[in-house]
Design a protein that fits this description.
By secondary structure, this protein is α+β, with helices and mostly antiparallel strands. The protein is built from four helices and four strands. Strands 1-2-4-3 form a four-stranded antiparallel beta sheet. Helix 3 packs across helix 4. The termini are far apart. About 15% of the residues are buried.
């Protein structure tokens, strides 16, 4: 058998490589397409699963609405909410209730301010910020009465400052008199409370 010459071998190899390039290109495209199709199939499966969950959630909406309406119409639950047509009227009722609680605790209501509640909240929240002066017993009584109050009341923030001041000498070391601030003989506390409750009313 006659051996192939070197130019012939080179020519054959060149043809083999030339014919192999389309096959390699097609194979690469097939692998890439297969990977993309696999990823797309996974995303489709995830989307179908999410769609199924959303459909189940939507299916429960009528039941949830019926339960909410039942709760709203239940008189025993209404005792825990401010039954006012608007959040503004509920805030005024909350202010009156806080004033009664502070007065019963022998405290002084310095100021009270209605604060806006979180938007799109159901049931709506009514909040007031109040400043009180009184003793430690006043603070304890106010907190206790807030806990026992109906409708339900909650304390969001508490800030307490004491009006007592450290003992100061009558004169400085050079013999000059020291001007002292007014003394509060009762040693009262200045208390700031953020108090909130919920209302069954709709519009603000």
């Amino acid at each position: 058998m006659k051996a192939l010459s070197r130019p012939t071998i080179v020519c054959v190899l060149a043809w083999v490589l030339l014919l192999s390039l389309p096959l390699l290109l097609i194979g690469g495209l097939a692998i890439s397409w297969s990977g993309q199709m696999g990823g797309l199939s996974g995303r489709i499966a995830d989307s179908e699963d999410q769609l199924s969950r959303f459909r189940r959630m939507i299916g429960t909406l009528p039941e949830l609405r019926a339960e909410l309406e039942q709760v709203r119409s239940n008189e025993s639950f209404k005792a825990f909410y401010f039954n006012a047509p608007t959040a503004a009227l509920a805030g005024a009722e909350l202010q009156r209730q806080v004033q009664d609680i502070v007065t019963a605790a022998n405290g002084r209501l310095i100021s009270t301010q209605i604060l806006p509640g979180p938007p799109e909240e159901s049931p709506p929240r009514v909040r007031v910020r109040t400043q009180i002066q009184g003793s430690t017993e006043t603070l304890l009584d106010v907190l206790y009465n807030l806990e026992q109050a109906r409708p339900f009341l909650f304390v969001d923030q508490v800030s307490v400052r004491s009006s007592a001041r450290p003992q100061q000498p009558a004169a400085d070391p050079r013999g000059r008199a020291i001007r002292r601030p007014p003394v509060n003989p009762a040693g009262e506390l200045t208390i700031r409370l953020d108090i909130f409750g919920f209302t069954l009313g709709g519009d603000t």
